[in-house]
Write a structure and sequence with these properties.
two-stranded antiparallel sheet, nine-stranded mixed sheet, 11 strands, Peroxisomal Thiolase, Chain A, domain 1
């Protein structure tokens, strides 16, 4: 695979963007990334999005954004893999450049969720589940994760409060991120007292519905513009059963395990080499399972890393260094690109108050569905 470099990055604040349409949010992020790269219009546009058709009544999103950006007479492709849509778009662009088909590409992840009523968004999110076995029986994504968390607690003897440090850490880091949805710290007491959504998941276990867009320019050529160069040295996508009931081991993310193993093999690295892991903490149970699947601890021991403080930005395996999905927010189709933008800032040494101590290798992992689609990337600072 030919080397692929991150030439430019851009992001919009994650919030409720009443004054911006979906195409405007996406366009803003794309323009910022292109300005950061300084190479003009790339050869193609790839857009990751989950629910433009259902929530925004808009198909052909990539073409719409290309038109808005003046990105004419070039390929523009929309990609959907539920909440991992952003990383899927990034991977498609990466492979196109690595193959020699393209010299450069603009990748945008965008989602606008807050314009729609809550029940419509809940229904749209549920389309990432198995319709016949899960969604048609009224199971929401919160409900599915609640079932998963309840089983995990039963299997390994954890209490709900034992998951609090995942959220506490995310919010502590988001305080320093001007793009984050929630920029206030939380306490263990506020976590425990938070309103229950779907037992055992409460409000502080879950990431918020949000609007946002993030973008990256990829290039076959190193472009640093006076900053540290960052390149992509591994990319792996794996799948598991769409429904929870068909999993061989319900309390493990098998696709994440195989995806990270493949990524480590491509990069020639092991978990101990990773100085930053931007995981997909849509729910606190997913934070625990992701750490286990990526090889940072044994199955059933994810909460221990959080309780012992090993997930803090200045500790063993920093996670959610700019708030993660929990506090930065989770505009679903954009999340994978936000993760990659944040990892790039860390490797460039531009992460400010939550700068990690080992900014050499960063890994991002984006999850689609309840663990049915996993996309893992490893970045390297040159």
């Amino acid at each position: 695979m030919n080397k692929v470099n991150i030439a430019g990055i851009g992001q919009t604040p994650v919030s409720e963007s009443w004054d911006k349409s979906l195409k405007e949010l996406a366009g803003d992020a794309g323009l910022i990334a292109m300005d950061d790269a300084g190479i003009g219009y790339p050869d193609a546009l790839f857009v990751g999005n989950m629910m433009a058709i259902t929530a925004n009544r808009q198909a052909q999103l990539a073409t719409l954004i290309a038109d808005w950006l003046g990105f004419h007479h070039k390929p523009a492709i929309s990609i959907e893999t539920a909440c991992s849509s952003g990383s899927a778009a990034f991977r498609m662009a990466l492979m196109a450049i690595a193959s020699g088909e393209l010299e450069s590409a603009l990748v945008i992840g965008a989602e606008k969720m807050t314009d729609s009523p809550g029940d419509e968004i809940t229904s749209s999110l549920a389309t990432a589940a198995d319709a016949e076995l899960e969604a048609d029986f009224g199971l929401s994504f919160v409900g599915l994760n609640a079932l998963l968390m309840r089983r995990y607690m039963y299997e390994y003897g954890w209490e709900h409060a034992d998951f609090s440090n995942f959220s506490i850490n995310a919010h502590a880091n988001a305080v320093h991120n001007p793009y984050a949805r929630f920029q206030e710290p939380i306490t263990k007491e506020s976590f425990i007292k938070s309103a229950m959504i779907s037992d055992p998941i409460n409000l502080m276990d879950a990431s918020p519905v949000s609007d946002g867009a993030a973008a990256i320019v990829l290039s076959a050529h190193p472009i640093s513009n006076g900053r540290k160069s960052v390149s992509v040295i591994a990319s792996s996508a794996m799948t598991d059963t769409l429904s929870l009931q068909n999993r061989k081991v319900g309390t493990r993310l098998a696709a994440a395990e195989t995806s990270t193993k493949a990524a480590y093999a491509q990069a020639g690295l092991s978990p101990s080499d990773i100085g930053l892991f931007e995981y997909h903490d849509a729910f606190s149970i997913m934070a625990a399972l992701s750490l286990e699947a990526a090889g940072f601890c044994e199955p059933g021991q994810g909460p221990t890393l959080a309780i012992d403080g090993k997930i803090k930005f200045d500790s063993d395996i920093p996670v959610a260094t700019m708030g993660g999905l929990k506090a930065r927010g989770h505009p679903v189709g954009a999340t994978g690109i936000y993760q990659l933008v944040e990892a790039t800032l860390q490797l460039r040494g531009l992460a400010g108050a939550t700068q990690v101590l080992r900014p050499k290798y960063a890994m991002t992992q984006n999850i689609g569905g309840s663990g049915s689609n996993i996309i893992t990337h490893i970045l390297q600072a040159e």
